[in-house]
Amino acid sequence: MSEIIIRVADPDKDAQALRDIYKPYVEETAITFEYAVPTVEEFKRRIKHTLEKYPYLVAEENGKILGYVYVSQLGERQAYAWAVETSIYIAKDQRGKGLGKKLYEAMEAILKKQHVTNAYAVVGYTKKPDPHLTNDSTYFHEKMGYKKVANLTDCGYKFDTWYDVIWMEKMLGDHQVPAKPFVKFCDIK
Q: Strand 4-8's sheet: what is its strand order?
């Protein structure tokens, strides 16, 4: 039996595979509200930008990337340095196998070393059965310890449908005063 490896994404090596995983999410689902599939070059840029401050991790088995997770700062202002928004994408044929949990656990361990205290998931939500969106992401985040803290009604429009967005929150650390300084990802590797 092969082993799943969680490692840091390499922009040049992994951009195509990550884009390939992301593409059906854009074209077939309302999980992402992005309308056009980014180019490989755009994916490289996004990975590099994220790695300037935060982890961008992939799950790999036998050299094949099965999924990925990354975070971004919740807001632009300095006071948001301890709060992040999470994003996770798993290859369609790999869902339901525990990869999301492995990726989130690895990511959260790093975020704690960075002194990040709050993690947020911004999740598309449907009020009724929908061919483009299930509420599986909500259920996944609940299993990972996230709690719903906000519901934005009909704020995302895709596939001629209005979708809610829910915000889910998980505390990763104590809110000390003074706050421990934020540590860039490149400084903890």
A: 4-8, 56-61, 64-73, 83-90, 118-125, 161-171, 147-158
